[in-house]
Amino acid sequence: MFDKILIANRGEIACRVMETARAMGVKTVAVYSDADATAKHVALADQAVHIGGAAPAESYLKGDVIIQAALDTGAQGIHPGYGFLSENPEFVEAVEAAGLTFIGPSASAIRAMGLKDAAKALMEEANVPVVPGYHGTNQDGAFLAEQAAEIGYPVLIKAVAGGGGKGMRLVENPTDFADALVSAQGEATTAFGNPDVLIEKFVTSPRHIEVQVFGDGTEAVHLFERDCSLQRRHQKVIEEAPAPGMTEAMRAAMGEAAVRAAEAIGYKGAGTIEFIVDGSDGLRPDGFWFMEMNTRLQVEHPVTEMITGVDLVEWQLRVAAGEPLPKTQEALSITGHAFEARIYAEDVPKGFLPATGTLSHLAFPQDARIDSGVRAADTISPWYDPMIAKLVVHGPTRAVALKKLEHALRNTDVGGTVTNVSFLALLAAQEDFAAGRVDTGLIERHMDALATQPTACSKARAVAALTALGMRPLDGSAPAETLVLWSPLTHSLSLIHNDVPFSVDVTVTGTAEYLVALEDATHRVTFRGGSWWVEGTKVTARTARHGAELTVFWGNGYRFVVVDPLEREEDAGAGGNTIVAPMPGLVKAVFAVAGQEVTQGDRLAILEAMKMEHAMLAPRDGVVADVVVAEGAQVEDGTALILLEEEEDA
């Protein structure tokens, strides 16, 4: 077994690997960028090495610097986590050339699964079912159109080097094929430097079910399946294991196919075989097809650990150190059901725009597993994925586990940034999902209901007002002694909730008794019997405050801004004259120049944030007065990008 390993990653996965390594008595080395000098993974490690600037290309993607850090600290192996260099075969070869152990698959296995078309040809040879389609090298447009016609519409055009939905187009009509092909090839070239595409049959009512595999380089086992059908823009949101509606016959067929796939490439370590499944008529052994293999540990691996009792990181270290597979296939079994929800700093009502901020408050329920790379007071950086935590629950049945998931999300408190927690809680209670009727289109079909901004009721606003005035302590304990006058004393204040200001009058009517008058309701609030009450409702809310920001956690996280009465109202700003960044990100392109006439809706710039591109459009007809940002600039939320000339009075 290793004495010391280096983790070539950051955040949640780096912390996750360190926790298992520590439990095994293995020392750990962290690497960190300028932005991560005080990060949680640095604090957890036995040693830490600075490797460069905040941008991934200046730090976490610098394989030579990371390898040197491992050599300098005496580490014997490198664990790549997921993302960054985890599926880079050249990095694997460099690690091994330096005399170190790469805790993962071989470079040849990664290459074999790196391109979708080559991987599918290999899987066909291994007798693994693949989706009907064309995976060849002929990229002539007319030829590809002929292949699409033979496959039968609807078809998917997919970049062979793709991922995350980039370079993918759904074509339902032959007349749309040519334009869709050009669009997919252009996006694939920009994203991956490779314009090649493949054509596949589009599966109706598709489900995304994947199988966890683990190999020792010769033999492999599977640790059953995970359902990852709840997706948004091809990004997973909530994962579960086992898959709802799974039959023993189909589980056996998928598991055997996944093992054949892993053994066909001599796979070593943890990997995932992803299948697309036709869910239109139940799950059938003849209704699943190979999609791709992820040659690394998956983000959603905890749900497999929860139902099998296996620590996959422990297995990774043991097999990389030369041990045989820890268990045979017959020794593996499923117990209960598990869910994982990915909690992100993102603004759901604004289209899931990634957010930043300092976590002024962070608290999770005790009855859930929390895998997180941040702590209270940490900052969500614009440089990396804005994940706050993975919340994982386990129960004896799917119904019980799902109730535990919703309850845990309702009791997750995050202050200092917007999050997707309310969205996840609504999704956990969504009728189709609760019934197991899942497919990859579920979220989009119900987006209007799921993406609503949580709005505080009058009782929650009353709690906010008392907390803002200091009459209700943040921890919900008894109020301080209050001087009660002959004539009741009334306090007035203003709050802002969901960008809407409102006024509140709070009258002290007795010891620990208050009358809270809102614009649309009046509530009597008291502290009695060791608890706070709003009328006849017991207040179970938690509260947090950071400066002017106040959050009431009561089923949802309701954010308020306490208005300083001495503050003068600032000018409304430039109105429609300024195009600002709606989120932190990288200015990928600027199309506007000073003096240019533009029409409402014209694309003026592109902002890239969290692997997605967002077009900045002209808010009205006008003339560009100034371009105040350059291509390649990293900007914060609210940064002015382009100014328009003032509109002339009619």
Describe this structure in words.
By secondary structure, the protein is of the alpha+beta class. It contains 17 helices and 40 strands. β27 and β28 form a beta hairpin. The N and C termini lie far apart (79 Å). The model is unreliable at 568-575 (pLDDT under 50).
List keywords for this structure.
alpha+beta; 17 helices; nine-stranded antiparallel β-sheet; eight-stranded antiparallel β-sheet; single chain
In short:
This protein has 650 residues and is α+β, with helices and mostly antiparallel strands.
How many helices does DSSP assign?
A: 17
How many runs of DSSP E, i.e. beta strands?
40
Strand order of the largest sheet: 29-28-27-26-25-24-32-31-30
Q: What about the largest sheet?
A: 9 strands, antiparallel
Mean pLDDT equals 92
Structural class: alpha+beta
User: What percent of the residues sit in helical stretches (DSSP H or I)?
Assistant: 10-25%
Rounded to the nearest angstrom, the distance between the terminal CA atoms is 79 Å
* Overall outline: globular
- Uncertain spans, ≥5 residues at pLDDT below 50? 568-575
SS strand fraction = 25-35%
Cα gyration radius (Å): 27 Å
Break the fold down into its secondary structure elements and pairings.
Blueprint: E1 4-7, H1 11-23, E2 27-33, H2 40-44, E3 47-52, H3 63-73, E4 77-79, H4 89-97, E5 101-102, H5 107-112, H6 116-125, E6 133-134, H7 141-151, E7 155-159, E8 168-171, H8 177-192, E9 197-201, E10 206-216, E11 220-232, E12 235-241, H9 248-264, E13 268-278, E14 288-294, H10 301-308, H11 312-320, E15 337-344, E16 346-347, E17 353-354, E18 357-358, E19 361-363, E20 369-372, E21 379-380, E22 387-395, H12 398-410, E23 413-415, H13 421-428, H14 431-434, H15 442-445, H16 447-450, H17 458-468, E24 489-497, E25 500-510, E26 513-517, E27 522-528, E28 531-534, E29 537-538, E30 542-546, E31 549-553, E32 557-562, E33 578-580, E34 585-590, E35 597-598, E36 603-609, E37 612-617, E38 622-627, E39 634-635, E40 640-644
Helix pairs in contact: 12-13
